[in-house]
Amino acid sequence: MFRIKDLDLAEKFVFLRVDFNVPLDDEGKIRDDTRIKAALPTLKYLLEQNTRVVVASHLGRPKGQFDPKLSMKPVAQRLSELISEDVRLAPDVIGEEVNRLKERLKERQVLVLENLRFYEGEKKNDPEFAQNLAKGIDYYINDAFGACHRAHASIVGIPRYVKKSAAGFLVTEELEYLNKAIYTPQKPYTVILGGAKVSDKIPIIQNLMNKADNILIGGAMAYTFFAAQGCDVGRSLVEKDKKDLALQVLNRAKENDVSFYLPLDHIVAAQMVSGQETRTVEDFPIPSDMMALDIGPKTIRTYAYSIAQAKTILWNGPMGVFEIDEFSQGTMKIAEAVAESDALSIVGGGDSVAAVYKAGVSDKISHISTGGGASLEYIANGTLPGIEALTEKNNDND
Ligand code: ADP
Ligand code: MG
């Protein structure tokens, strides 16, 4: 993969793909600008090289057509507040007017394109759309780690139509940390997995099976593993069609000599809403009108012990319904345990990252991934479409 520093960018015209898919409130104001700030090192570096920069991102899900609610206007505004350079917003993504604005752009000026997903060609990776995006551009830089698992025009299409493409600083840093967890983890290596669906996490479990020493399971996904073994889990979430797969995973864990932990006790309630009466249950059956919504105190202690021993920790997926206070203890305590450990700790996944912030321990985590789906897919497959597009064989068009 080419990196930004491999290219001679001085005075060139650069297309910078970023992940500015920020959360907006009802009034269209930016609720959290972390993603904008995360791309600033790359943008500032580009401007120091006296480049002209076109910045582009998707925002929300506009369904292939113009949607004023999902305009990049607030993003461009925020960006211009954050960097003291000249930032303009294009009225469109491609087309004659955008091309004119590109031509008029001066060194150290930034042109933010409208939302890439205003065009169907983005998600379809339409070659003509990609070619239009690349019009007038010398070099392409991808710093949109959170979108690298998408084979979209602005991720895998553009590199074919520019001289060279490379990864920005954010993408490079993400890969450095994730590579440590995949290829050279210091032992003991503890992987914590939770969240809603076992199906989302099976590929990652399978890939880490022969690398991790301990796999700690929490969240709703635990109950598919229990149900597969014939336990009565009450009304807990179970993916019935994934039971066979769950059994296969349990068998592989035995063969691979990895310690595979399922919760030892459960916080249960009748419904997944706040204000419920909760109970701690140690043994099955879980009462037939109850569902397990968090890990219990015994599980927390056991998992925290494993976390304290670890030299490498990878965490994806909350231990319970952490959005609701009554069911947030498991996730909060695990977050604290990870923060207290001096291991290399990596947290990925939108909700897991939110949980780490909620626990107030974000500054004690070695690396918080900006890409949920992308980090999972990278760990599972060892590469991503957007990374492949930056390799020598795919992008040297000089
Ligand atoms: P991430 O975004 O970190 O990858 P997921 O999206 O896989 O995590 O899972 C997060 C969701 O899982 C949260 O909304 C949380 O409420 C839910 N969840 C966790 N545990 C349970 C449970 N026991 N029952 C139902 N939902 C759960
Ligand atoms: Mg999620």
What does this structure look like?
It is elongated and about 70 Å long. By secondary structure, it is an alpha/beta fold. Strands 3-4-2-1-5-6 form a 6-stranded parallel sheet. A 6-stranded parallel sheet has the order 9-8-7-13-14-15, with helices on both faces. The protein has a 3-stranded antiparallel sheet with strand order 11-10-12. Strand 3, helix 4 and strand 4 form a beta-alpha-beta unit. Helix 9 packs parallel to helix 11 and helix 12 runs parallel beside helix 13. The protein is built from 17 helices and 15 strands. Magnesium ion binds next to helix 14. The site of magnesium ion has 3 residues, from helix 14.
Question: Keyphrases for this structure?
Answer:
17 helices; 15 strands; six-stranded parallel β-sheet; elongated; binds adenosine-5'-diphosphate; 398 residues; binds magnesium ion; alpha/beta
Give the proportion of residues in helices. Answer: 25-40%
Strand line-up across the major sheet: 3-4-2-1-5-6
- What kind of sheet is the major sheet? 6 strands, parallel
| Ends apart, CA distance between termini | 16 Å
Indicate the proportion of strand residues.
Answer: 15-25%
Alpha plus pi helix count: 17
Indicate the mean pLDDT: 95
Rounded to the nearest angstrom, the radius of gyration is 23 Å
Low-confidence blocks of residues: none
Shape: elongated
List ligands, each type once: adenosine-5'-diphosphate, magnesium ion
Protein structure class: alpha/beta
Query: How many DSSP-defined strands?
Result: 15
